[in-house]
Amino acid sequence: MNLDDLPIRDDLRGLSPYGAPQIDVPVRLNTNENPYGPSASLVTDLAEAVRHGAAELNRYPDRDALALRADLADYLGHGLTAERVWAANGSNEVIQQILQAFGGPGRCAMGFEPSYSMHSIIAGGTSTEWIPALREEDFGIDPDKAVAAIAEHRPDVVFLTSPNNPTGTALDPAVIARIAEAAPGMVVVDEAYFEFARTGTPSALTLLPGNPRLIVTRTMSKAFAMAGTRLGYLAAHPAVVEALLLVRLPYHLSTLTQTAARVALTHREELLGTVDMLRDERDATVAWLRDLGLKVADSDANFVLFGTFADRHAVWAELLERGVLIREVGPPGWLRVSIGTAEEMAAFRAVLEGIL
Ligand code: PMP
């Protein structure tokens, strides 16, 4: 028997699972992880906390993760409290819960592409119709066109990604505010890469007080260097959190996950200390690629979209052949490189130069 023989949902037939290749090569620059591993002191504290918590693993975890949510609220600032913060297994699960509560059969969600393709994939998984709107040539969003698209389709959920993946483009909060004003339903600002934004870029968190249908999502997978922990979170009006409690699975966040995230938050200065280095490395990468005569999107994230290549797959494959894994993603002809350590970026430059 194979997959096609199963009575699977018609809308899932013929689909491929999402996921970048996980290939063991010397230089992995394809999933926007933070290249710096945890320090010895974080590993020690984590091991101690897990040892302590292990004695109670016969019990379910704190179902509402209240202590973790209070810690996340403290990290976010902006006067947020635990009742305005929610957490799940990666921001992907947060997004899934949002669509379970506010999307679903007979409802639709809109996003501005090119953007993070999991938004539309999770819409599919929750039987929410997906309506793609387009970004401009510079990968920004034209607020007039966005408002017109929203008026036409009346989406139940609007996704705005800032800084955007895979382009790196940050949105002006004034644009987000206009869209939030025009949207009849929920507006989700996916700020997975916010910590990498150029200094002075305001967060959409500043818009929460006047916008009760606004949700800002974040993750510990990127700047926090905790991708393996699987911890994503959001800030929103307390009523939004109440709505998500209706769809979350009981005990969705394991004791071990909650423990690891809380320990990481106590080490946040050290973890976020890598952000400045990664920003500098990013800006240097943008400048270097432009010096080569390539097109490069301005980036406020920990990756850079560059191109354009007549045969981008050939360039990607040649880099891989020489031990450097990047991502074949974005509009036709473009490639995306995540920012690694100085040594990894030197390897990327040497190999790409050899290819070009
Ligand atoms: N949002 C965006 C824009 C992303 O790029 C990613 C990861 N690639 C995520 C959300 C999901 O991250 P996680 O589930 O690890 O929190």
From TrEMBL:
The protein's Enzyme Commission number: 2.6.1.9
Alphabetical list of InterPro entries matching this protein: Aminotrans_II_pyridoxalP_BS (IPR001917), Aminotransferase_I/II_large (IPR004839), HisP_aminotrans (IPR005861), PyrdxlP-dep_Trfase (IPR015424), PyrdxlP-dep_Trfase_major (IPR015421), PyrdxlP-dep_Trfase_small (IPR015422)
UniProt GO MF annotations: histidinol-phosphate transaminase activity; pyridoxal phosphate binding
Keyword Acetylation on entry: no
Alphabetical UniProt keywords: Amino-acid biosynthesis, Aminotransferase, Histidine biosynthesis, Pyridoxal phosphate, Transferase
Modified residues (N6-(pyridoxal phosphate)lysine): K222
Cofactor(s) this protein cannot do without: pyridoxal 5'-phosphate
NCBIfam families: hisC, PRK03317.1
Record family assignment: Belongs to the class-II pyridoxal-phosphate-dependent aminotransferase family. Histidinol-phosphate aminotransferase subfamily.
The name this protein goes by in its record: Histidinol-phosphate aminotransferase
Species of origin: Planobispora rosea
